[in-house]
Amino acid sequence: MNAFSLSRIGAKLRGGLVSPLALRRMGVLGMNARNVNYIARYNERRLYPVVDDKLNTKRAARRAGIAVPELIAAFETQPSRSRVMEVIEPLWKFVIKPARGSGGKGILVVVGRNGPNYVKPSGAEVTAMDILRHVSNIHSGLYSLGGKPDRVMIEALVDFDPVFDNYSFEGVPDIRVIVFRGFPVMAMLRCSTHSSDGKANLHQGAVGVGIDLASGKSCHAVQNGLRINRHPDTEMPFDKLQVPGWRDLLRLAASCYEMTGLGYLGCDIVLDRRRGPLLLEANARPGLAIQIANGVGLRSRLRLIEKMDIEDLERNVEERVAYSVQQFSAAES
Amino acid sequence: MSPRAQVYILAVLFALMGAGLTIYKNRELGFPLLPGEYRTVWTIEAKVRFNADGGPAKASLTLPREQRNMEVLGETFSSSGFGFNIIRADDEYRAVWSRREASGSQSLFYQLDVHQTPGAPLEQPLDLSTEVDKPFLGAREQEAVRQAIYSMVESAHERSSDTKTFTTQLLTALGDTRNQDRNLIFGYYKDRSLVDVALLMLSAAEIPAHRIRGLYLEDDRRRLDPEDLLEVYDGKRWVVFEPRTGSPGVPRNFFIWQRGGKSLLDVEGGSDSRVTFSVIANDVPARDVAMLSTSNEKEALVDFSIYSLPIEQQSIFKLILLVPVGALVVVLLRVFVGIRTSGTFMPVLLAIAFIETRLLTGLAIFVLILVLGLWVRFYLSRLNLLLVARIAAVVVTVVILMAAISVVSYKLGIEQALTVTFFPMIILAWTIERMSIVWEEDGPYEVVVQSGGSLLVAVLAYWVMTNSYIEHWTFNFPELLLALLGFILIVGNYTGYRLGELMRFRQLVR
Q1: Which end of chain B is more exposed for a tag (fewer CB within 10 A), N or C?
Q2: Where does the record place the ATP-grasp domain (chain A) (predicted)?
């Protein structure tokens, strides 16, 4: 459990404040500017359902030819107990998700069986009862925004590429790419740690690793707002980290623009051992922690794309990725 | 037009409307801008006394006509045993008390509250007769007196250029005890007052004039006799003179009771009639004065506002009108500071509850209910209930907790805790539910951050909402809500950094 600690608050306060002018000089994008200048301006409200509901995302991705984890079953209505058991009985590994969960809430990962019990990645075991309750909770809207009734989806557990095995504790890292008007502008790898309890949220103690858009190599890594060089649990140095098939991953991220129509988009991507990059989910309100992980502000990169001519924006996926790789390499910015 | 420009135009429009209406209400209707402003309200009581003969009795008293710079806020009559009505005769209002049989000493009262406002005291032009009854100064008057009168008129005439200066000269001469003519006249008219004599002499000079009866408003005066002023027609307009000093204009604190009329009091069927006045000054909250004076005039802005609601609803609105202020506090803290709260406007509801409970009691009760509720909720979560049923169970738990807190604290003699009922139960139940999920998902640290943030915002909102200035403005100038709306629109356009981000992104600068 992520214990409440005074030392963490102390560390936060000790760092003190920086002047807003310094932040502006660094081109850091603030929450208010993100909401007003990017989300409100480039993300049409009517397009939100595509990304806010993971079942919709999956459907759209399949139409657009974007690889996603395999959907095993989806319950539109409150499923009966036997129906749920019927679905999960033959499965060894699976993930139960709310279609409209926010911030990774309500995701139950099962990595194996132990007799009648199901094993979570942390090694903890849950009973079939717990799973049924979880399904019922999702359905009642416990994890959805505004408590609206939600749909339950059961996905196959991704067969993760072992390349990150040494960079993650318990959980599996995913890669977040910010895509602005179809151009990937920044990327990071989120690695869970012991102190983040297997979760990949940076504010809960996960490590954010900035990924150089040009090479797919790590360029910067941060935990709890402090720069680190090695994974705190596995002691693996980050400078050896290299995301395989980086171009393919960027292509997948860039093509999410056509799929969703959203101008300012965050794509969460995982690497499958055999299938390569898979789109886990897309986010119309991606967080700003990616700037901390990269040690670079977003503003100047977004500005560059905002200044483009109309015809520049009509490039295809390949051209856009090429542009991003050339413009936004870590060495230059 | 870009949305941004629209926002600014709208915001400016709203702000101007709000400010304009506020200024209008302050300037024209006299609503005070600051709380605790007092206005002097004069309570004038006229006491009519007479000895009734035993038969039918009727007393009629001239009522003060509307004086422009004196606002009548209310009037009361006491007429024990007498029939009472107000009649209008010869452009005058008269109160008439009547009774079939009355004997012995009678006392009748008329009381009115007036409030002095800036502005000219008298309306011009006045539709009063400008006829002059030339006095008959023949056989009855001695020749010497007549000579004295004409010589004084003559000398005043020589030393003046127009009616105004003439009157001043005449009044100065009448006040001069060394003037032989004056002494002669007053020696002859022993039982006449200065104003009587002045009127006589003005009519001798063929200048239309009449008397004004009234009172000097001075605090705590009893058994006053009415004082007289002189009003003179200068050919175009009527000019008021203070007879003793001879200076033109109505004295500042003079309350005009009767203008140009004949008698102040008429009594039939009685004798020894007399009217005396007493004056008391009261300091009344300026807002009450404004409310009283506008309710008489049916001012649309006031008549079609929350003031026209019953008092009970008004006091509810007093609270409701504070909600936007609380919302503003939430907006400011979230946009400029970036405090995380559980439920966006939950802190405002908490703040409203705090207003009823007082701050410390409210905080204690809230924390107590939250802790106990979370504890119960953790047990409920093991029972595999459906969400709605579980939240309903938490609601019931919260209600039981509130009842228990009330009863226990009442028995212990802590009556303050009885105000627990003001907490919004459903909101509390949802807060408990959310907090328990936050606890499970993000750990207790996040629970402390979020509930601490909510409490901080609630306390700040409480502090702002209970500020006496804010309370005064929101209730007396609800128009300011428009200005507030404009401000919120502008804040909604803020794209700068939040205070929390200055800390969050500090690593990027080094």
Answers
A1: N
A2: 58-309
